[in-house]
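Internal ticket #5521
Category: modeling
Description: The requester needs a full-assembly model to guide mutagenesis choices. All entity lines are attached below as received. Residue total reported by intake: 332.
Assigned to: D.W.
Attached entities:
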Amino acid sequence: MAILRWTLTVSVAVALGVTACAPQKSTTTSLKNEKERKQAPDFALKDSHGKTVKLSDFKGKVVLLDFWATWCGPCQIEIPWFAEFERKYKDRGFEVVGVSMDDDGWKVINPFVKDKKINYRILLGDDQTGSLYGGVDALPMTLVIDRDGRIASVHVGLASKGDFADAIEKLLEAPATHAGKRTHRSDES
Amino acid sequence: MLASALIAQMSPSLTVAPIATIKAAKGTEATVTFKASLPPGFHTNTNKPTEAYLIPLTLKWTGGPLETGSIVYPKGTMEKYSFSETALSVVSGEFSISTKFKVPAGAPTGAAAESGTLRYQACNDKACFPPKTLSVSFTVTVE
């Protein structure tokens, strides 16, 4: 049963272009060309106010989707970078979405968010959402998603700030191709 | 081939060596030590991590005839990783954990299982993996 679960996990991971983190190194995909990009699986998760947020709510924007946890040291290095990106690029159609994989939920996430002054949307992840993205076994796992909702790059493990910034800049410069109509978040009406 | 290679690189599992059966008389103390190990390249936090957000290595004995006394965890080493500004107190490779038990005077005579859990959370230099809880047990013959 366990082997089947892992096989399924790996199959999904390979399909998404995600690979697990090998000891002592991280895995990063460079910015895929548009034809190679696959649609990011949609999900619906709750924020700390109990509001349901879908990934598809952000279509039309470039999204940095970060799977993280409070107990994850490498995640803590990246979080200030993402807060900086949120400030720097938000007005150009960019959003950071953090999906916490903490089993203990908001009681550990909320103080952490306050302590780290996280300025972007945090959602509480679950195994089902993790499975959509290949199991999300190694953290951090960060995806950069283009304006059409397609996965443009995947980073498993601690990555480089410059790689993220380069990917975001390039994707912000490129217009949406077919999904072009910007979809506003439901709380922005 | 690709799948098996990837599986080999996924979440590391801490392994615990089988714990030998012990014999202990009622009203006495007995110490049980077991060995555990992590694959190369991975570490877990010690029982006293240097950062509040880190999950400690924790052994809990939950069932059996013995009373749990003190637990001696591996001291670990201070290691610096690319994701931390300061050195962290971690354990890697093979290590031992000892528990001192009391055998109650009223413990039932004969063989019984003493069982517990070992919780850990592993990382390598670039990524961390979800906390896991392992079952641990041994047989004690109370005389």
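Resolution: model delivered.
Comment from assignee: Residues 1-9 of chain B have pLDDT under 50 and may be disordered.
Ticket closed.
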